[in-house]
Design brief:
alpha+beta, about 60 residues, two-stranded antiparallel ribbon
């Protein structure tokens, strides 16, 4: 299914994981939120000593 609005075409997408979705949002933020928008990607991922990925969020 496709949705068209203001000469933009939106298509339903499936992502393998949250990281894939986040990358798509960062790459397409101007189309998603408007050309005058500013998207701040404030999430940071680090690995702990056991190799597990941890998610850090800025509280500023």
């Amino acid at each position: 299914m496709k949705i068209t609005h203001s000469n933009l075409v939106f298509t339903r997408m499936s992502y393998e994981n949250e990281l894939e979705l986040e990358k798509a949002v960062v790459a397409n933020s101007k189309q998603m939120f408007g050309s005058k928008s500013v998207y701040f990607d404030i999430k940071k991922r680090v690995k702990n000593g056991m190799g597990k990925e941890l998610l850090l969020r800025s509280n500023k």
